[in-house]
Amino acid sequence: MELRNLRAFVEVVRQGGFSQAAKKVFATQSTVSKAVKQLEDELGLRLLDRVGHKITQTAAGEIVFRRAQMMLTERDDLIHELDELRGLQRGVLRIGLPPIGSSVLFAPLFASYRRRYPGIEISLVEYGSRRLEEMLLAGEIELAASLLPVSEAFEWQDVSREPIMALLPDEHPCASGTQALDLTEIADTPFILFEAGFALNRVILEACTQLGIEPSIVTRSGQIDFIVELVAAGMGVAFLPRMIAEQRQHVGVCMRELADSELHWHMALLWRRGGYLSHAARAWLELAREEC
């Protein structure tokens, strides 16, 4: 069983088609199609069901996809571990960061890391926490920043813990208070949330569930500045960790800290439990312990 055939199959599933997978593995579409056919012939099972342009996995395909990801990850771990014999004079740090908070928490770390290890290339991807966790499990990145709690599939190192602020239009009845704000006080106000996949949404919505609140979600966005502008326009209430909210002071927007002591923004660095961590990744974690 050739790893290149497994990789081609995995990318067809991930990308949702042969042409997209071909771009990912830097091959032609026919080469990818042939690789998947060879894998099916070798296994004696149909792995993909093709209906028009739509591709779905068969039951056998689901098993092969799951196992193939593990095999490819182990292969990558092997290559990375051997590369590390050369130490930190060269290498790649593969890390994923979310859009919220990274500029404040991690930009200084990037500068420090670069000064200390100039030969290490930093390969950065930026997505919401859900996607980053998927990439960690698939072995596409070594480290990711995400909000706690996370599943037992990950180990983690603490970075920062911040209270969450409610951003309210100035004319809102709760805007003028000085005490910490209960979620129940703004339960009838429309919520402005981030796009699906952002872990801050999960924190807010789980707190609402515990309180028996069913919020009305007026809109979602992936842009912090746009969300603040929507609040200023009176569309509803939004939520940000304090360190980010304080950087987004805006005329027409009042900020109130949420009262629930369990409702917080707890950022950590994650890695796959039991997975190999390169020296480059370990050096990043050590630097984060020093500076965060």
Task: Give the structure's gist in a few sentences.
By secondary structure, this protein is an alpha/beta fold.
What do you see in this structure?
42% of the residues lie in helices and 24% in strands. With 292 residues, it is α/β, with parallel strands linked by helices. The chain folds into three domains: 3-69, Arc Repressor Mutant, subunit A; 82-159 and 266-291, Periplasmic binding protein-like II (D-Maltodextrin-Binding Protein, domain 2, 3-Layer(aba) Sandwich); 160-265, D-Maltodextrin-Binding Protein, domain 2, CATH 3.40.190. Strands 3, 4, 5, 6, 9, 10 and 11 form a seven-stranded mixed sheet that branches. Helix 1 (3-15) packs across helix 2, helix 1 crosses helix 3 (29-43) and helix 2 crosses helix 3. The mean pLDDT is 90.
